[in-house]
Amino acid sequence: MEKNPVTLEAIVSLCKRRGFVFPGSEIYGGLAGIYDFGPRGVELLNNLKREWWKANVYDNENYFGLDSGMFKNPKVWEASGHTSGFSDPLAECRNCHARIRVDKELGKLGVIADEKMSEQEINALFDAHRDEIKCPECGKKDFTKARAFNLLVQSNLGDFTSEGAEPVYLPGEACQGIYLDYKNIVDTMQPKVPFGVAQIGKAFRNEISPRNFLFRTRELEQADTQYFVKPNENKEAFEQIKQNRWNWYLSMGVREENLRWHQHENLVFYASDAWDIEYNFPSLGFDELEGVHDRTDYDLTQHMKFSGVDLRYNDPETNEKYIPWILETSVGMGRMFLAVLADAYREDELGGETRVYLALHPKLAPVKVMVSPLLKNKPELVEKAREVYTSLKKVIPQIAWDDNGNIGKRYRRQDEIGTPFCITIDFDTLGENPDLLDTVTLRHRDTGEQERLSIAEATERIRSAIA
What we know:
5-stranded mixed β-sheet, Rossmann fold, BirA Bifunctional Protein, domain 2, single chain, 467 residues, 7-stranded mixed β-sheet
């Protein structure tokens, strides 16, 4: 497969220039691994969330939504293994004190250092390849030993002594809330196994070296589904979930040549199987976009053990009691955003000029249609265009008004943010040609083609494309 020709630099530039993504706290010099979604970015992000929720809750039978609180009893993270095992191997440059993730640097050399390895095993690999690893800041090859660095972000919530005796953590992953509310959902919704729970929630990770824009950040949103099945009845459902997730990306317009499957060779101790959907990210190549995991009964068993609460499911048909197995899908919304935006990025020539445009699926575009008078110094055109804009906005809220500059420049601006349609009000709309009274020019983003339609026809054409 060819490497994605789009560069990360081009995506970052477009995101800043067109109001998609800004560096967090930029006026103070920023903060590593933190980004803000701007006016157009938040619309694209919300559209992605909406389509994900529709596919995983509304279009599925026996799936339920959840929004659990971020702060949790500290024992949750002990039970889940995060306080002891949620760590990355860190080494520090002795010259400039920059920090590196040793496993990632080894991975660039084709050396696998997985999360099950001890510090001693990681350091043995590190020592064998020290002369091949340069500091990304100063270029030196003088590092400390690798040590495990826990990624949980600690808080002082409820700690009025400042002693830190019982630390509270921001969530290292969003899915734990689903396991904690599993019993509440069973008791209130009376679902029959198999059933699923979906959630989009915040997670925080004290990343050693956040980098590559939205690919690796310290604050992220995760979209998770947890599907509860009978023990040992996991294989068929797992394959169906994998196929569903693959098909969803295709339905959102992501090109299949930029996707591939990767099966984990070194499974964590509780997993029966684990696959990643990888995307061909700009400048990075193929890397994890979404994980699909067979977690067996580990999570509920651990929480039952640490909480003392019986989390067995009482099957109403067989009267069996058992801990369901869990099939998980998990994707970072930032990575999804980056993949969808990069996949839609295009450069071509139109009308003898080079242009940049985003070929976003109309459902995902932050703006669905731009309405514009042909000339802004003609009051009659502006009045009619405003009338059309106001009428359309009632049925298509994600709409823009633009009367700045000539019509060609307006089209280019809308192309660059992915607006699929533009409506132009001209003198024929006003009846200069009686046969064209109350018609408009509808322009299509991807081709630049234009067609003459009545206002009602144009409205219906847009509505059907974004439905």
